[in-house]
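Re: [ENG-882] Designed sequences occasionally contain unexpected residues at chain ends

Forwarding the minimal case from QA. Structure tokens:
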């Protein structure tokens, strides 16, 4: 990326708009008489590139950058630079598809990049655009004035290395890297604090809530089952009650019928009792008469049986005596027979 064109209007010694073009991509030299505005061209380039140190552009305030401090009817200064951007490999970040990049600054520090306002943090955004291609206009060694050439030539190697790092923009990225590392360390510390908070407070609380949630679900399931059991038991009891009510009504009807039958039977019994009472005297008399005859007959029968029993007992006694005599005779015969047979058996 290199400068294609610079336009200056109302800046320092340039009261009218002046456009400079045909810049060489590698090396350019501005020549002219003393007081012709050679240095002001370089100041204009630094100004539009976002330089913050006004002393580098030989001014104490922004008002000094306006032609004759605004006393000649010119109240603002504007500078625009157009860059060739035909090398995507070396293009600023986000502008690799733009062949030309035009940066305009004018009025009260108002920046335009390719016609689009860069309002919030405009100077920083412009500086970032150039820093992405290793250009840092706020580097103290970015602009080497005539009086500093000899001083730079006498620098020691470490000083020259530092100068080159500053000029190339790597120093800036080192500082940004350090800042990013500090931010990362803070974020890491914050992350550790969050992890500690999570492990010590949030996770135990979450575990407790999960346990309470599980307990609640168990209780809710128990309550649903309990309501179901109660409803089922109520339904069974209601059916039993309805059935029992029917049976009770049937029993009550049957009890009524029994009571009625009982009353009828009691009436019949009362009628019969009256009849029995009337016949009772006559029956007792007849029974006594029959009982007297029956006693006489029974007495006679008893006498007959007693006589027969005495006869049978006498016959039994005689039989026993005869049996005893026969048994004694049989025993004697056995003894005699044994004696007769003994000698014959011995021979």
């Amino acid at each position: 990326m290199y400068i294609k064109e610079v336009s200056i209007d109302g800046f320092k010694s340039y009261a009218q708009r002046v456009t400079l073009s045909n810049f060489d991509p590698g090396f350019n030299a501005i020549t002219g008489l003393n007081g012709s505005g050679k240095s002001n061209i370089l100041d204009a380039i630094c100004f539009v590139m976002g330089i913050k140190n006004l002393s580098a552009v030989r001014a104490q305030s922004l008002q000094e950058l306006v032609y004759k401090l605004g006393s000649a009817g010119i109240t603002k200064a504007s500078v625009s630079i157009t860059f060739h951007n035909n090398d995507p490999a070396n293009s600023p970040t986000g502008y690799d598809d733009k062949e030309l990049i035009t940066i305009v600054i004018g009025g009260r520090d108002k920046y335009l990049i390719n016609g689009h306002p860069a309002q919030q943090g405009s100077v920083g955004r412009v500086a970032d655009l150039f820093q992405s291609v290793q250009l840092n206009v706020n580097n103290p060694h970015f602009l080497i004035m005539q009086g500093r050439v000899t001083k730079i030539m006498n620098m020691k190697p470490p000083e020259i290395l530092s100068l080159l790092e500053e000029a190339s923009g790597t120093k800036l990225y080192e500082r940004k890297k350090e800042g990013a590392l500090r931010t990362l360390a803070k974020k890491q510390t914050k992350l550790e604090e969050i992890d500690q908070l999570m492990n010590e407070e949030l996770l135990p609380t979450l575990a407790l809530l999960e346990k309470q949630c599980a307990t609640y679900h168990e209780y809710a399931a128990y309550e649903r089952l309990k309501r179901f059991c109660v409803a089922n038991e109520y339904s069974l009891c209601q059916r039993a009650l309805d059935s029992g009510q029917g049976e009770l009504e049937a029993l009550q009807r049957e009890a009524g019928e029994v009571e009625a039958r009982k009353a009828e039977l009691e009436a019949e019994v009362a009628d019969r009792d009256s009849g029995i009472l009337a016949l009772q005297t006559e029956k007792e008399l007849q029974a006594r008469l029959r009982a007297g005859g029956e006693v006489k007959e029974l007495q006679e029968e008893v006498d007959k049986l007693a006589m027969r029993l005495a006869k049978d007992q006498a016959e039994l006694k005689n039989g026993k005596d005869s049996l005893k005599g026969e048994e004694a005779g049989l025993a004697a015969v056995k003894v005699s027979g044994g004696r007769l047979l003994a000698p014959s058996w011995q021979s």
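QA comment: On inspection the terminal residues look reasonable. The first strand starts at residue 2 and ends at 9. Proposing we downgrade this to a documentation issue.
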